[in-house]
Every structure is written in C-alpha cells, then in structure tokens.
Amino acid sequence: MTKFRHLSHPVISAGVLWNIIRSSFYRFISNRQLRKIQRVSTNNCWCGGTLNPFKWHSSYGICSECGCYVNKRPPRREEFSRIYSSRLYWGSIAKMRGWPTLEHRADLYSADGRLRHWLDLIAKYCPQRGTAIEVGCAPGVLLAELCKQGYSCVGVEVEEEVAAWMRTHFHLAIRTGPFPDTRMDLPRCDLFLAFDVLEHVPSPLEFLNAAATLLNPSGIAILQTPVDRYDYDPPLGKEVPVVFDDTEHLFVFVDRSIQELAQRAGLQIVSLAEPPWRIGHELSILRKPDA
Fold first, then answer.
1. CA within 13 Å, CB half, 169
2. Would you call 288 exposed, middle or buried from its count of C-beta atoms within 10 A (0-12, 13-18, 19+)?
C-alpha cells in the first residue's frame, strides 16, 4: 500500500499540470476572441442616475440614484450573440474556467443543488400548471423538468446552435434571439424565469417590461442575479472577481435597484429574502397584479 501511495504522487502531479496547461490554452483562445468584442461607454445607470467611482473595479461605477453597480464599458448589443455562443461562452470560456460544456451542464445543475433549489422555489410560489417561459434556458434541464410536471414550456436562447441542441436532446420549444425582441413569437405566461440573465442584459428595465407584458395577471417572475445584500467589503465578498466581470456583467444590483425596476415595470415584490443556492446568485420573486 505504501508503495502504491508513493506511485500516486506523479499521477496526481501530472493531472494538476495538465489542468493548468489546458486552462492556460483556453484562456489564450478566449482572451483572443474577447479582445475583438466592441464596447461602448456610459456614465449613466439604467435608471438614469449618474455614476460615482467604485473602488474595487475601475470599469464599474455606483449609481447615485438606485445604488446599482454599473459597467461603464459594456459590450455593444450586437456582440451578445457572439459572447454567448457555443464556440465562446459554452466552449473556450467554459473550458478555461473548468466548467462542464453544454453537453454536461445539466449533470452539474443536478449535482450542485441549483436545479432542486429552483424547483422548490417554483413549487412554493407558482401555480402547479400553466405556461412557463425561461429566458437564457440552456442547458434546458429546468424546462424539461417543468414539462414533466405538466407545464407548457417555451425557452429563449440567444444562439441557434445552442437552441438546436436543446430541441434535439430535450424536445423543447426554443425561440432564438435576444430578449426582448418584438419579432419573437412568445405566448402569455403564468411563470417567467430568468436565472443568471438580468446582469447580462443592456437594459434591465426593457427586459422586465417585456416580462411584465407576457405575464398573465397574478403571474410570477423569478429572477436570479447578483444582488449585494450583504455587509461585505468588497461587495459580495470573495465572489467579487467573478461577479464584477466587465465583459459579461453589465449590472450588479442592490435591493433598492430591484425594487425600482419592479415598480417601473408594474410588478409587485413578493420576496427578496429567499436564500440563494450560492452567493452571487440572489433571488427576487415578483408578481404581476391582478387585472
């Protein structure tokens, strides 16, 4: 046993070295593609407020009105289909970060508890049947589970190749393109879902207005997005390098900004107190008032 234990050290070392080499290679590939992303400049929040300096990241400012953290150098809208493509986000970026690629992401969502967490939330706040829309629905496992429970489900994903994969593997109805898009044929719904999406969109208010339009009276929207609800310095503690990613994350919210968003979109706050499955993935439960 002692002999074999010694023999395991080179194997472990080789595995660690391979992971470092692999990550470095995909970091090079990802960064080369990301450098081509065209950006714009802004000094205003989605709410119209001006931005104050943010000491933890020079690319972000803090809104003087709603307290939101705002990316001052966001990618152009036209770049989002390239960023969240099967080649970049689901390909080289995932491999660089050590994440499973699209084909294996569903297994991760079951293993790390987030799928069960989402299903429990839906069971707590939502009707047992109805129409559900999920924006940013890859890898499709949540909608597949909701279909089994009797929901009529429609997903939205920005790239056709990712959407086609979900249609093939889960037989889901997937619309392709950025949300919102007036050309996209989406039904009215009882449940609107967006997990780890709102921080990526150029206009959170436009996004939430579109969600409110789709929701039936008494319909529920569940949003998962980084919200600074903690007494940490820096905001969100050790997750700050991940949350303040100035290529992907355009906004990092506080509860005041979520409340302002909901009010402007005509939605009611049901809960801002549900615990996240992990810090940086905070939950906001909203409701469309009865007609």
1. 16
2. buried
Containing 190, the helix (H) or strand (E) segment is strand 189-195
DSSP letter for each residue of 101-132: -HHHHHHHHHHTSHHHHHHHHHHHHS-SSSEE
**Measuring CA to CA, which residue among 179, 124, 192, 123 is closest to residue 153?**
192
pLDDT tens, position by position, 75-86: 998 888 888 887
Cβ atoms of 215 and 189 closer than 8 Å: yes
Q: What pLDDT, in 10s, does the model give residues 243-264? A: 999 989 999 999 999 999 999 9
Question: How many angstroms separate the CA atoms of 146 and 128, rounded?
Answer: 10
What local confidence, expressed as pLDDT, does residue 35 receive? 74
pLDDT in tens, 42-59: 999 999 999 999 999 999
Q: Which candidate, 250, 252, 195, places its Cα nearest to that of 77? A: 250
CATH number of 98-287: 3.40.50.150
